[in-house]
C-alpha cells in the first residue's frame, strides 16, 4: 500500500466513516488523519492545492527556499535518503509514496529554513497576536501532555531546581526518518533535530540540549538494548538474550533503555526483517511479561502468533490488547477477520 498513490477523496471517505471516538474538544488522541482532513479543508476553502497554499502563504513569504511538498520523482539537490538499522549496519528504508502522508507529513525542509519559520512566529508576519494566542493555548490534555493547535505545550523543569522554561514542541516520523522541533519561547531558543537512520532518541537528546542551554547537569541518552540483544540472538539463541536482558536490567539499569517499545522494536526486527518468527514470539512474550499493561505488546505478540499459525493464541492476545486499549482498531479488525475465517 505504501508504494501506491491514492486519491485524497478515497481517504476522506474512510476517515469520515463510522462513529466519533469521543465528543470533539473533550480530549485528544493524536492521529495523522486529523491533519489530512485539515489539508482537504484548506483546498476546499481556497480552491487551490494544499501545496500551493503552503508555498504562497508561508514558504515564499518567509524565504524558505529549501522547504516544500515532496514529490518522489522531483530531483532535489542534497535531499537526504532515509535508512533503517539492521543487525550489521543499515539498509534503505522501505519506499513510501509521498502522496499518502499528504498534509500530515509530506514535507522536506532544513534546519535553517525552520529557524526562519520559528522567528516569524515571534512577530506578526504570518499570524496576528490574537491568532497566535489561540494557536499556542493548551486546549486538552492526555498522558501528562497539554495539546494546543498542532503543538505540545508545557513547562520543562530541572532536577533539584525550581526553575522552569516554557516549551512548545512537536515530533514526527516517517519511513527512515524521525524529527523533533522544540521552541523554548521564554528565551527564544530553538532546537531542531533531524534523523535519517530510523528512530533515534530525539526527545532524550533535546532534553540534554535544554539542560546544556540552561547550564544544568545533563545525561546522554540511554543506549538502546536492541542491537545488543539481537547480536546475542544471532550468535547464540533467544534464551541467552532473554537472560542477558534481565542481567543488564539488574546490574546496569541506568545505562540502557529497557522500555517496552525497545523490546517491541527488537521483536519486529526478528519477525519482519529476519523472518525469525519463533524468536520474535519469545521476545514479545518477554515484553508482555515485563510490561503487562502495554497494550501494543499483546497486539504484536498476536501478530507473531498469526504468522506462526497459532490462531487461538492470536485471538487471546488481540483480545487482551483490546481490553487494555479499546481504541485498538487493528485488534478489532484482526479479531473480525479471524472469526470470519472460522
Task: Give structural notes.
By secondary structure, this protein is of the alpha+beta class. It folds into 2 domains: 8-213, 3-Layer(aba) Sandwich (Beta-lactamase); 223-341, Tetratricopeptide repeat domain (Serine Threonine Protein Phosphatase 5, Tetratricopeptide repeat), CATH 1.25.40. Helices cover 46% and strands 16% of the residues. It is built from 13 helices and 12 strands. The strands form 4 sheets. Strands 5-6-7-8-9-10 form a 6-stranded antiparallel beta sheet, with helices on both faces. The chain has a two-stranded antiparallel ribbon with strand order 1-4. Helix 12 (311-324) runs antiparallel to helix 13. The longest helix has 15 residues, at 32-46. The two termini are 27 Å apart.
What is this structure, in a nutshell?
With 342 residues, the protein is an alpha+beta fold. The chain has two domains: 8-213, 3-Layer(aba) Sandwich (Beta-lactamase), CATH 3.40.710.10; 223-341, Serine Threonine Protein Phosphatase 5, Tetratricopeptide repeat (Alpha Horseshoe).
Q: How many runs of DSSP E, i.e. beta strands?
A: 12
The proportion of residues in beta strands is 15-25%
**End-to-end distance:** 27 Å
Give the % helix: 40-55%
How would you describe the shape?
globular
Number of domains: 2
Q: Helix and strand string, N-terminal first?
A: HHHEEEEHHEEEEEEHEHHEHHHHH
* Structural classification: alpha+beta
CATH domain class of the largest domain: Alpha Beta
> How much is the radius of gyration in Å?
22 Å
CATH architecture verdict of the largest domain: 3-Layer(aba) Sandwich
Could you list the spans in which at least 5 consecutive residues all have pLDDT below 50?
none
Q: Largest sheet at a glance?
A: 6 strands, antiparallel
The number of helical runs is: 13
CATH fold type of the largest domain: Beta-lactamase
CATH homology superfamily of the largest domain: DD-peptidase/beta-lactamase superfamily
Mean pLDDT: 91
Strand order of the largest sheet: 5-6-7-8-9-10
